Each structure stands twice: as C-alpha cells, then as structure tokens.
Please model this.
Amino acid sequence: MARALAYSVQRSPTASAVLGNGLVYDVAIIGGGPAGATCATLCASQGRSVLLLERSQFPRDKVCGDCLNPLAWIVLEQLGLRERTLFLPHSVLEGVRFIGTNGLSVRVPLPHSPQPELGISRSQLDQLLLTRAREAGVIIHENTPLKKLRRLPSGWQLECDKGVFEAQQLVAADGRNSTVARQLGLLPPPLADDRIAVQTHLPQPACLNKDVVLQFVREGYAGLAPIGNNLANLCLVSRPRDLAAIKSWATAQFDLSEGQTWRSIAPLRRMPLAPTQPRLWLTGDTAQVVEPFTGEGIAYALRTGALCAEALLLDNPALYATRHAALYRGRLWVNHLARWACLNPKGGSALLLLGRVFPPFLQLLTRKVVAKQPLLYPQIP
Ligand SMILES: Cc1cc2nc3c(=O)[nH]c(=O)nc-3n(C[C@H](O)[C@H](O)[C@H](O)COP(=O)(O)OP(=O)(O)OC[C@H]3O[C@@H](n4cnc5c(N)ncnc54)[C@H](O)[C@@H]3O)c2cc1C
Model:
C-alpha cells in the first residue's frame, strides 16, 4: 500500500498537456542552481507549468570562488533581479592581483562599469534566484534529490522521495556530477590528472581591499575574494595528492584554525556533453564545465539557462545547440591557458613575469574574461 502511494503520479494544478491518462508538467528541471533557476523562471513566466527538484535545502553553501562575472548581469536584468542582487551583501571588485610562486605580484584593474564584477556569497545569490523562480510560479521541491528517471514515449517519469512525477520536457541542471547524465549513461569517465577544489569562508584579511587575489603556490593555486559583510571566500585547487599540503599552507597563511570547515568538489575538468537530445536539455555545468580560475561558471550557467528556456519555449533544440556553441566559441582558449597555468604553477608565474614586463598581455586576458558580450538570443516576446 505504502509502495502504491509512493508511486502515485503527482499532477500539476496548472499542467496544460496530456500524456497517457493524466496531466503532466510541461517542463521538469533537475537542480535549482543558477542554470536551473533561470531556466525555470523564464519558462514559468511564459505560462509553462514547471516542476523543479533540488537536492539541497536552500540557502546552501557551494564550492565556488563567489565571484560574479559581469557577463551575468544581462540575465540578472532579464530576470528583474538587478536591484535585489545589489541589495545582498557583496563587494564590488576593483582588481585582480596575481601572485607567482616566487612572490612576484601583478595587479590588473577591473573596468569601472554599471555592470561590475561582484564578490557575493553563493548561498545568498542562489537563494535569490530560486525565490525568483518560486515567484514566477515554479513548483519547487527542495531537499528532494532525483532518484530515478525513465524515458516515456512522449516525456519523462521522475522518481524522488516526494513521489513520481511526469513531464514532457526535461532540463538537466544538476551540475558537473549530474544524476540525469549518469542515469542516462551520458556522464563521461573522469579525466586523468584532474584536480580537486576545497573552499571555505573566513573573516576578510585587512590587506585584501576590493581585489581578488589569485596566488600560484607549489601545490596548485589559491583564490581569495571579498564577499561583503567583512567576509572573504577562499578556494584552494590542487591535485588530490597535494591537498593536505596546500591546506597546511593556507592554514598558516590565513591564520585559520585546524578545525576550519572545508567543502570539496571534483572533477574540475570534464568533457562537454551535447546540450540537447529529444525532449532533453542540458544546461550550466551539466553540459559544459569551465576552468574555475577564470570565475565565469555562474555567468555561463545563467546564460545557458536563459538560452535553454528560450529555445525550449520555441521548441527549437537546434537553436539551443547553435547558441550554446556560440556562447563558448572563441573563449575556451583563455580557459585552456588558465588551466595550463594552474597545472604548472611555475609556468603560470612565468606568464606573470611576462605580464609585468608587458602589461597589455594580462590586461588582454582579463578583458577577455570580464568583457561585455552581446545578447546572443532574442528576448522572449
Ligand atoms: C573551485 C571552484 C571555484 C569556482 N569559482 C567560481 C567563481 O568565482 N565564479 C563563477 O562564476 N564560477 C565559479 N565556479 C563555477 C561555478 O561554481 C559553476 O559553474 C556554477 O555553480 C554552475 O551552476 P549550475 O547551475 O550549472 O550548477 P550548480 O550550481 O552546481 O547547481 C546544481 C544544483 O543541482 C542540485 N542537484 C545535484 N544533483 C541533484 C539531484 N540528483 N537531484 C536534484 N538536484 C540535484 C545541486 O544541489 C545544485 O543546487 C567555480 C567552480 C569551482 C569548482
């Protein structure tokens, strides 16, 4: 009996489509991070019935450098969240300070702009994005990981602790270790020589001011950013065998206690996945992971979430595939270069020396990462 109840299909009160014997959601989204929340808000704003399943209970912290790239503003404005984002505790970032293994330091100022780079806590930013989705009418179940997924002739069946749901379209926005991709056999095998990242928050060191500091050390690199409320975010990235050593370095460097809480994540690198399949849309980190050093992943998640919604509303997967590819085109070489520098801290330090002798080199790289990009898609009518 209990089993029968658990398997009763949940119906959406606003569902507009008929599948089999009953009503189903137009769209189900797995994952309520920036990609999933954006896609959900934009689909629901256009009258689609949207279900979102999120594994965690928000607000939740996340392994991230907490830097919001200016490319994100275009979507935050589309969601009507400009003022509310700026109302959250944050720090307007004014420069990037690179420090080499030899102590050489080079500072690149960030452009002054109405769309600045922010240091902002992911727990608060993601909470705001999910709240926006709820306001748009998305049915959200937090603390509800997707357990099982089944393809139906004209949609999907999703099983979780809250029951069994059906939807016509499925959006996988559940991050780099996507359950959807794993269950469908799409998740690529781990890459050799990958790294691991750990992250924590700490009181903002006085010397930090409003700069992000990216420091190469023998074991990898550290990223430190002010995030407002007198707090800073610290991320460490290294090969797994060097993790203990880089943590010891950070404990001494930032005067942390031995009991400091660290969150961890892997992989940092993963082969990209095709962003669409019939009735399936992959967005954010699920489709493509970028090098964390450049601090662009949230902006890519927001932008691919928006691109996905727009193509989904037009029922045009090919449009999504084209625009998705265009979004990353011409920028991944910066990612490759950054990854190379991170894997070879001495090489990275040599690049800094080049940047010191020839400042336009680092300025070019920084501008490439924080420059404004045109909107790649038409606005939803
Ligand atoms: C060390 C490090 C530093 C970084 N620093 C930056 C930075 O400074 N700036 C930046 O822009 N980017 C940064 N990034 C990248 C950024 O964190 C990601 O690109 C971004 O979070 C991707 O957003 P998303 O919505 O695709 O996925 P996520 O933010 O990962 O969201 C996925 C959501 O899916 C949920 N989920 C997972 N599995 C399930 C399931 N089975 N069922 C239901 N829900 C599920 C998760 O709980 C999560 O809330 C960094 C990444 C790393 C690793």
Notes: The two ends are 47 Å apart (CA to CA). DSSP finds twelve helices and 20 strands in the chain.
